[in-house]
Amino acid sequence: MALTIIENACVFDGFHDELSEGQNLVIENDIIREISSEPVKSQSGTRIDVKGGTVMPGLIDAHVHVTDWNASPAELIDQPSSLTTLFAARNLKKMLYRGFTTVRDACGADFGLAAAVDQGIIESPRLFFVGQALSPTGGHGDFRNPGNDSMQDLCSCSERGLSQIVDGEIEVRRAARNELRKGAHAVKIMASGGVASPTDPITNLQFSEAEIIAVVEEAEFWGRYVMAHAYTVEAIKRCLEFGVRSIEHGNLIDYETAKLANDSSAFVVPTLVTYQAMYERGADIGLPKHSIDKLNDVRDAGLRSLEYLKAAGTKTGFGTDLFGDLQSEQLRELMIRAEVDSNVDVLRSATSINAELLGMDGKLGCIKAGAFADLLVIDGNPLEDLMLLQKESQHITHIMKAGKLHVDNSS
Q1: Per-residue pLDDT of the chain (411 residues; tens, 9 = 90+)
Q2: Does domain 3-58+365-408 have CATH number 3.90.1300.10?
Q3: In this structure, what are the phi and psi dihedrals at residue 214, rounded to the nearest 5 degrees?
Q4: pTM attached to this predicted model
Q5: Which of 326, 355, 364, 410 shows the smallest number of beta carbons within 10 Å?
C-alpha cells in the first residue's frame, strides 16, 4: 500500500468560496482517505509539506481534440494513424503538465488511445472519449470541399477521421451503437453549422427530430448521454427538447434558452479560447479562409453567452476546443471566463461541475474523502489570482493523478 501525506495545506475543495486552512491529507494508493486539521501520526508513507500552499482538484477540460494536430481536419484522414497517435500522446502529456488531470475528447480519440492511458503506456490525464462524431451529409463533420463529389471520400469512410457521415434514423442508430460498443463514454452529434467545416453556415440546422431522438435513445440504452455541437438558439432548443444532455459551444444562446437548459438539467460547455486563438493566430497556422470568414459570427457573442448562462443558473462546464499548436492556449480559457464569472465560479466549472457532467461527481473534481487523488498544489491562492494557474511552470508545484506525482517542483 502506497501512503502519501500532504501537510500544511490550504484546501479548495471544488465547491466552497473559501479555502480551508491548516489541512492535512492522507492518500492511500489512488484515493484520498482523510482530510483533517489534526496532525497525521502515521510513521510510514511519503510526506509532502506544502507550507501553506493551496491544494485543489486537478483541472478537467470537457472539450478537447487530442488527435487533431492539424489546422485542417480534412487532411487528418490522409495521415497514418500511427503518426496521429504519437501526436495525441504528446498532446495528452502536455495537458497533464498544464494541470489537467482529466479531459473529455470531443471526437477523434478512441478505445485504443484510452486503453493506452488506462494501462499507463502514455503519461496522460484521465481520458473520456466519444470516438467519431456523427454528422449528416454537408454538416459540420463533412469536410469535403464543394467541388468534391466522391462518395468514397466522405469523412466517415476513414477510421482516422474526427467524424462519420450518417443520414437517416437507421444509419444514425447503427453508428451510435457502434461507438457505444467500442466504449464511448458519450455520443457526439453535429446539430448546427460550424467554423471548421467548409460548406455549412453557422445557422444551419443538422439532423432531423427523428435522428436526434434515435441517438439519444441509443445512448440512454447504454447508460450514456449525447453531447451536441450547437451554436444557435434554434439548434440548442431542438437538442434540449429531444434529450441532449451536453451542449457544446452555445455562443449564440439567449437568456430564455439558457433557462431552458437549466430547467432541462442540461450542461452547456463554452469554448471561448478557441475563437480568440483562431482570430489571432489562425492565418499563421494555415486555418482555411472559409473558417476565418465564419469566425466573427461566433467570437463576438462568446462573453455575452456567459452572462446569459450565469443569469439563468445553468450548469456551465469548462472546455477549450483547441487544435494543433493552438493547444498551448488551453489555460487561457480561465482568464477569458474570469471577464464575466468570479474566480471561484471559473474553478468550479473546471472541477466539480465538469465532474458532474462526466458522471464522476464525488470522485473527480473535488478534494474530499473517497475521491480520487487527482490534485494540484499551487504556490498561492488561485481564488484570488487565476494567473497562478496561467503561469503553471512558476506556481504549480505539484501535479498528482491517481495518487502518483507527475510534477514535483518543490525543490
Answers
A1: 799 999 999 999 999 999 999 999 999 999 999 999 999 988 788 999 999 999 999 999 999 999 987 766 667 777 788 999 999 999 999 999 999 999 999 999 999 999 999 999 999 999 999 999 999 998 887 877 676 766 544 444 445 578 899 999 999 999 999 999 999 999 999 999 887 777 778 889 999 999 999 999 999 999 999 999 999 999 999 999 999 999 999 999 999 999 999 999 999 999 999 999 988 987 887 777 767 777 877 888 999 999 999 999 999 999 999 998 899 999 999 999 999 999 999 999 999 999 999 999 999 999 999 999 999 999 999 999 999 998 766 899 999 999 999 999 987
A2: no
A3: -65, -45
A4: 0.95
A5: 410
Question: What is the C-alpha separation between 193 and 191, in angstroms, rounded?
Answer: 7
Q: Whose grid coordinates read 453508428?
A: 175
Counting every residue, how long is the chain? 411
**CATH fold for the domain made of 59-357:** TIM Barrel (3.20.20)
Task: Judge contact between 103 and 92, C-beta under 8 A.
Answer: yes
Q: Which three cell numbers stand for residue 205?
A: 440546422
